[in-house]
Amino acid sequence: MTAAVLAVLGSSLGGCLDKPTLAKPGASGHIVFHLWGQPGMPPTVFRTDDLTQEGSRFDHLVMRPVEIRRPFEEGIVFIHSPKGQYSSPKAEAGSTAAENTIQLDGPVRIAGSWRGEPVVGLAQSAVMRRSQLRSDRRLDMTDVVLLTRGSLGTYRTLSFDEEGHMGFTTYHQEPKQSPALSAALAALPHPLVFPEFREADRQRGGIEIPGSDSAP
């Protein structure tokens, strides 16, 4: 992992009485970085074209758009969102580490596999959560349409934790899926293989976030 690449760009004076302004720290281009890696498991990988640092610390980052490769014990999911906001609140003295989150704006598109079966869906919004407890490291989605295990369903809320457990509220199974959808599912290879983001991309545009679990 290359060292952090962050540039502060100053704008030119618009007039003799105008005060100079500085663009927010960040980077643009093809940016790939690792975050939230766990021993024995591949890290969660983020890819974005524009990264902006809000504030003076690496506790609030904005990515536009953002793609995420999120592995867990019983599968993997790829996530695409037009905008993601990473937040890492500073813990109070004597307290446990605060929960880190990534808020994803909709439409949030997801694709991957769960327990060997393909998963494809769309959510209105989503939040990735990172805490000390593995059971609290979750992907929480709202207003979801999801195709999994050959069935198309809608969910008010849907979550996957790091151990591969799925939880949901207000589930409704749609009528029998169309022949075209059945044929598309049958044509998928088995088992499904989801490649990593290219190593060349990571080396060219990698950014290491201080305080993350990224490997060099």
Strand order of the largest sheet: 2-3-6-7-9-8-5-4
Structural class of the secondary elements? mainly beta
* Largest sheet entry: 8 strands, antiparallel, barrel
Beta-strand segment tally: 13
Order of helices and strands: EEEEEEEEEEEEEHH
Cα end-to-end separation: 4 Å
Number of domains in the coordinates? 1
Instruction: Kindly report the name of the CATH homologous superfamily.
Output: Lipopolysaccharide (LPS) transport protein A like domain
What portion of residues is helical? under 10%
Poorly predicted regions are: 1-22, 199-216
- Known CATH architecture: Sandwich
Number of helices: 2
Proportion of beta-strand residues = 35-45%
Mean pLDDT: 73
- CATH fold name, please? lipopolysaccharide transport protein A fold
Q: Could you tell me the radius of gyration in angstroms?
A: 20 Å
Shape estimate = globular
Question: What is the CATH C-level name?
Answer: Mainly Beta
Describe this structure in words.
This protein has 216 residues and is mostly beta strands. It has a single domain (26-90, 99-191), classed as Sandwich (lipopolysaccharide transport protein A fold), CATH 2.60.450. It is 7% helix and 44% strand. It contains two helices and 13 strands. The protein has an eight-stranded antiparallel beta barrel with strand order 2-3-6-7-9-8-5-4. A hairpin with a 2-residue loop joins strand 4 (66-72) and strand 5 (75-81). The chain is globular, with a radius of gyration of 20 Å. The model is unreliable at 1-22 and 199-216 (pLDDT under 50).
